Amino acid sequence: MIKVLAIDISGRHQENDIFFRVYAGVLVEIKADRIVHVEKIDVMVKEGKSQKLRDIIKEVKEFIEKFGKEFDYILCERGEFFNTSKDVISSILRKEVIFPKTRGELEAINIAHHVSYSVRKLLIKERGININYL
Q1: Residue 133's pLDDT band (boundaries 50, 70, 90)?
Q2: pTM to 2 decimals?
Q3: What structural domains and CATH numbers belong to the chain?
């Protein structure tokens, strides 16, 4: 069994001249074929006027600090860092970054995706922002 941090970022779309991003992290113990245990789920909300790679990296660094260092690697989808090489991102974050391959990894990313999307949708509804694609 290994412990991984699955991260998903929802809302990398500009609305009303700002980017409204919700980061979701799921710390899980997995085997190749399944999730064994969900240890922690957390979210972070960020707004900004820009959305450059440096913005995303800075915010992800801040976010992963909430989870400590007791996990083997970070799972994320290829596009989270604008398709930058995972080796480059691993070097910057000082933790190995993996794109999901196994069923357990895909399930972990799926949980993170549902959390980030759902939290973002709730916050947008609460703020009364009109978005046609939700």
Answers
A1: very low
A2: 0.91
A3: 2-127 (3.30.420.10)
